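Re: pyridoxal-5'-phosphate structure - here you go.
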Amino acid sequence: MHVYADHGATTPVDARVVSAMLPYFSERFGNASSIHAWGQEAREAVDRAREHVARAIGATPSEIVFTSGATESDNFAALGSAFANESRGRHLVTTTVEHHAVLEACGFLESRGYEVTFVPVDREGRVDPDDVRAAIRNDTILISVMHANNEIGTVEPIETIGRLARERGVLMHTDAAQTVGIMPVHVDELSVDLLSISAHKRYGPKGVGALYVRKGARISRIQHGGSHERNRRAGTENVPAAVGFGEAIRIALESMEEEAARLRVLRDRLAQGLARIDGARLNGSLTDRLPGNVNVSFEGADSESLLMALDFRGVAASSGSACTSGSLEPSHVLSAIGLPPDIAKGTVRFSLGRTTSAADVDYLLHVVPEIVSQLRRKPPLTTPNIR
Ligand SMILES: *Cc1c(COP(=O)(O)O)cnc(C)c1O
C-alpha cells in the first residue's frame, strides 16, 4: 500500500492541467511580449490564466503579478514594500510562525537596518490581533501574517488584522499558499493589500505562483529588467506554467467546498484515531484549521525514525522539525507554540488531499500505532555501546 500524506509539501499536477499546458511548450511557443501572432497567442493565454487567478481571490486581473512561486511572492511583498516606503519608516510587523520565506526576508531587512517585531502566538498557533495592534508604530510600513500555517494548520484571524492595518494606513500582506483553492479567500473580505499564492500546493506546476498587489499599493519591484508584468516583475513570462496555474486554480475552485468537506471528515477521523495512541498530542487549533492538516507529537519517539519507518511502510509524511546537518532542531513553529523540545522532536505532519481515500486513513490508523510502539521499545540511538 502506498499512501501520500504530504500534500502540504506539494501535490501531483492534475491531468487536465498538464493537457492545458502542453501546447504552450511547442506549437504555441510565442513570447508573450512579442507583437506578432505567436506573441499574441501566448499573451492571450497568460491573460486568461490571470483572470482565473484573480477571480479565485476576488481581485481584478491587473492586480495579479505572476512570480516563480510563494517564496518569491513573500520576498517581493516584504522587500518590495520596505524599499518603496522607506521615507515613511523602516519597521515591519510579522509573527513567529511564518514560513521561512517571510522570516528570512525580514531577517535580511534587519541586517540592512530595518526593525522587525515578531508577534508571538498562543498554544494553538493563533495570533492575537490585539498583539498586532500593540506592535504597530508610526513608522510601521508592513504587517505580514500568514493565512494558514503550513506545519500545524492553524488559520489566522486575517480579517481582523487586515482591518486594523487599514485603520492605521499600514500595508497588509498574507501568505495564502496553503489556503487558496481549499478555503474561501477574498482579498476585500480579508482587507489585505498583498497576498502570496503558489500553484504546486493546489495541483498545479512547481515554479509558478503569484503576488496579488492591490491597486495603488506602494511596492517596488525586486527583479529588474524588461517591463513585463506591467513593470512589476521583469523576465519573459513562463507561459506554460501560467496556463497550468490558471487551470489548476479554476479546477480547485469548482469543487472546493465538496473537497474541503471530504477532507475535514478524513482529517478528523485520522486525528481522533491518532490521539488515542498513548502519549500522543495533537498540535494546532481544533476549530480554525486547514481541512487536510493533522499534526501530532508522539512522546518518546523521534520524527526522523518515525518518517523512515513510515516510508518503509509506503507512507509519505513530513516532520514538524527541520533537520539541520544531522542534529534535529525543533521547528520554529513548534517552539513558538511552546512545545518542549523533547516532545517537539517526535512530531509528524500528515497532510491529506485529493489523492487521500478513506482506505488511506484506515491504513495510517493501522501502521502509525505499530510504528510508534516499536520505536518506543528501541533504546535511543545515542545509548553508548559499552559493556
Ligand atoms: C509552500 C509554501 C511556500 C513556498 O511556496 P513555493 O511556491 O514552494 O516557493 C510559502 N509559504 C507557505 C505557507 C507554503 O506552504
